[in-house]
Write a structure and sequence with these properties.
With about 350 residues, the protein is an alpha/beta fold. It folds into 2 domains: about 150 residues, Periplasmic binding protein-like II (D-Maltodextrin-Binding Protein, domain 2); about 160 residues, Periplasmic binding protein-like II (D-Maltodextrin-Binding Protein, domain 2, 3-Layer(aba) Sandwich). The chain is built from 12 helices and 11 strands. Strands 1, 2, 3, 4, 5, 6, 7, 8, 9, 10 and 11 form an 11-stranded mixed beta sheet that branches. Strand 6, helix 6 and strand 7 form a beta-alpha-beta unit. The longest helix has 28 residues.
């Protein structure tokens, strides 16, 4: 062996070893893997403008599900539904709440919802379930009914009306104020009540009779109830108004000076009211499907259902929800409401509104 070459080889290997050791000591450590995010997930819920929920009830859902709920208020029911339909290929939200039975068939035809069978659905009476594929699940209801000023009828020794036919009698001339169905949800509900009772052939002659009996038509519920109605909250001359079966109870609950009895009452005899039912559905193409399902479950469960009346003046479809004592004491509930199917409403709504406008506002 060549000694010089052997020495060079050993010196080369020793130097290489030193370089490796220095490099190992000075090399930067690999960055640690990023931790999995633990913050709340976002859930987007599209609603109509009247949606409301107690802060404590919402906070419980968010805490239980590590979620943050973003509400997208999108106008009245019709406007909100239009937005949901127009954006169905790129949905603005994960869940849509607020479509009612006057617009339900349109939502189903447009196929904006996915089917979902909530475990709470079995607790809800079948009368509220209008979609047999469970794409739209019932949440709440409200009955649009005639309301009257009890004091007026007592002072004039006059019996309040009990049927829609009564409103055509001479003794009720000039006493009724209603809302325009083209601009008002309760106005549309009352029009549908008359269609449910008198049918396609009879509803226009009925309205012509109301016109002859000096019915007053205004654009919205607020004007009818607070300006034209003579009840406690109103200051007007007319003692009969289209409102809700819940209105008398709210007269007690929100009275400026405590009162023991409501100054108004609702007419809840058979076929005098129209029931509005509101639904919730999971939107096609939405994100966070599991969280959306939990929100639907939450809306159908007792805590949210019990919160509904004081927040949105509607009533729970889940009979396990506990109502405020004032509602239990003063609420008048119709046993049989006038009915028009959601499909018939979808097919004829625009025709009916056009015919009504020509007959009543001409």
């Amino acid at each position: 062996m060549n000694t010089r070459n052997s020495w060079k080889t050993r010196r080369f290997l020793f130097g290489l070893l030193i370089l490796v050791m220095v490099s190992a000591c000075t090399a930067k450590p690999e960055p640690a893997a990023s931790p999995t995010p633990t913050g709340p997930r976002s859930l987007r819920v599209m609603t109509h403008d009247s949606f409301a929920i107690s802060e404590s009830v919402l906070a419980k859902f968010e805490a239980d599900n590590n979620a943050k709920v973003q509400f997208l208020k999108s106008g009245d029911t019709g406007t909100a539904l239009n937005k949901a339909i127009l954006s169905k290929d790129n949905p603005l939200a994960d869940v849509f709440y607020g479509v009612d039975n006057t617009f339900l068939s349109r939502a189903l035809v447009e196929n904006i919802f996915v089917p979902y069978v909530s475990p709470h659905l079995s607790e809800i009476p079948s009368a509220f379930k209008l979609d047999d594929q469970n794409r739209a699940l019932p949440v709440d209801y409200g009955d649009v009914c005639l309301n009257y000023d009890r004091g007026y009828f007592s002072e004039h020794n006059l019996q309040p009306p009990k049927t829609l036919d009564d409103l055509l009698k001479p003794e009720y001339k000039g006493l009724l104020v209603v809302q325009n169905p083209a601009t008002s949800s309760p106005g549309l509900a009352f029009l549908l009540a008359t269609i449910g009772v008198y049918g396609d052939e009879g509803y226009l002659p009925y309205w012509e009779g109301l016109v002859e009996n000096d019915v007053l038509v205004v654009n919205d519920w607020e004007t009818a109830y607070y300006t034209e109605f003579s009840g406690s909250s109103g200051k007007g001359p007319r003692p009969i108004v289209v409102s809700y079966n819940s209105s008398p109870a709210f007269e007690v609950i929100y009275a400026g000076t405590p009162i023991d009895e409501p100054p108004t009452a609702a007419v809840v005899d058979d076929n005098t009211c129209f029931r509005q039912v509101e639904f919730v559905g999971i939107l096609q193409g939405g994100q966070n499907r599991d969280l959306a399902e939990k929100w639907v479950d939450f809306m159908l469960a007792a805590d949210f259902q019990a919160d509904l009346p004081m927040q949105m003046f509607v009533f729970p479809v889940n009979p396990q929800a506990q109502l405020d004592e004032a509602f239990v004491k003063y609420l008048q509930t119709p046993q049989k409401t006038a009915f028009v199917s959601p499909q018939e409403i979808a097919d004829k709504r625009e025709q009916w509104l056009k015919e009504w406008t020509e007959a009543v506002l001409r």
